[in-house]
Design brief:
- It contains no helices and eleven strands.
- It is mainly beta.
- A hairpin with a 4-residue loop joins strand 7 and strand 8.
Amino acid sequence: QAQLVESGGGLVQAGGSLRLSCAASGRTFSRYNMGWFRQAPGKEREFVCGISWLGVTDCADSVKGRFTISRDNAKITMYLQMDSLKPEDTAVYYCAAKGIGRVGYEFWGQGTQVTVSS
């Protein structure tokens, strides 16, 4: 059974930092492309950052220069380092994975809440 479990969310003041982790199990996730998404209250879920199984990264313009995505294939864990957080970053953050060549993400975590106070 493939499983993704997020951790590291919490409450932080604007300008602060958090690091989210996504632990994967049940599949050979080292050969999966992975990503972080977020959903704020009343808004649609949106892409935050992605990382390919080869380590190529991409992030949404709204977080570029502030968020960094990385992965440790030995630990089968993906990270999202979030710096200079803003109140508008408040959302539930989800990690996701998809096989090579897949268009849509196949596996999702349960989400972790990030709240940034002003």
